[in-house]
Amino acid sequence: MLQIPAFTDNYIYLLIDGEEAAVVDPGEAGPVIKALEDRNLKLRWILNTHHHRDHVGGNLELIDRFGCEVWGAAKDAARIPGIQRRLEVNEAFTLFGKKFQVMPADGHTVGHIVFHVPEARALFCGDTIFSLGCGKLFEGSPAQMWDSLSRLRDLPGDTLVYCAHEYTLENAAFALRAEPANPDLRARVTECETLRRGGNPTVPSTMAMECATNPFLRPESPILQKFAHMEGEELWKIFGKLRHCKDQFDDGEEV
């Protein structure tokens, strides 16, 4: 697999088997075309997690260039350019001899899906989980997003979390504000600062690491509940308040 930087902070994932390839969330075509031509690869499939432009913007150019197929959520088909195969949640398909499970992930958008590849210990999660964070709720509700996150955090701890953006250090600032004494979080931030100084990605992380450090996967934490002033509330409500606090924090407001 090849991790391709795009725009200012996106990651596109090129899955390779022999001379064939599939690509996850090609927001722009240029970097994908270069990677394919440099390796003499034929692009066969595009897998889209959701309809946002920075995830589907390269679809049509790649179709014109390679004649590839676009696979995306049936629920979001009207908003995914060039879609040919409409995937239902909880269905499975096989690419390159590996089983891909389509998991529902409403929240960031309605119709968002993720691709879990158990044999590869890989989760291509679009804008659902980020390293130390989660996607903004542009369309879905806190209850929907928490349902998605709680399902994903139950995946095996060694699952590699391939999110679509390099947001780790930005997310770390809020995570440390919410839980400054978490030793796993502090160690993770130090590691990521070193990686970024060297020009290296902080993605992927693992699901175990996210469950230990990501505030949006841990609303059970008494410390996070106290930070959000939501002690003893339902988990989806605590998550929703944490997400609201993060939005305020990003806007420069005191939380």
Name of the CATH class of the largest domain:
Alpha Beta
**Which runs of at least 5 residues are low in confidence (pLDDT < 50)?**
none
Question: Number of DSSP strands?
Answer: 14
Shape: globular
Rg result: 18 Å
| Multimeric state | single chain
Please state the structural category: alpha/beta
Count of folded domains: 2
Strand content: 25-35%
Give me some keywords for this one.
six-stranded mixed β-sheet, alpha/beta, 255 residues, Metallo-beta-lactamase, Chain A, 9 helices
Q: Explain this structure to me?
A:
This protein folds into 2 domains: 1-87, Metallo-beta-lactamase, Chain A; 89-255, Ribonuclease Z/Hydroxyacylglutathione hydrolase-like (Metallo-beta-lactamase, Chain A), CATH 3.60.15.10. It is built from 9 helices and 14 strands. It has helices at residues 30-38, 53-56, 59-66, 142-152, 168-178, 183-197, 207-213, 222-227, 235-250; strands at 2-6, 10-17, 20-24, 42-47, 69-73, 83-87, 92-95, 98-104, 113-117, 122-126, 129-130, 133-134, 160-163, 205-206. It has a 6-stranded mixed β-sheet with strand order 1-2-3-4-5-6, with helices on one face. It has a 6-stranded mixed β-sheet with strand order 7-8-9-10-13-14. A hairpin with an 8-residue loop joins strand 8 and strand 9 (113-117). It is globular and about 55 Å long. The mean pLDDT is 98.
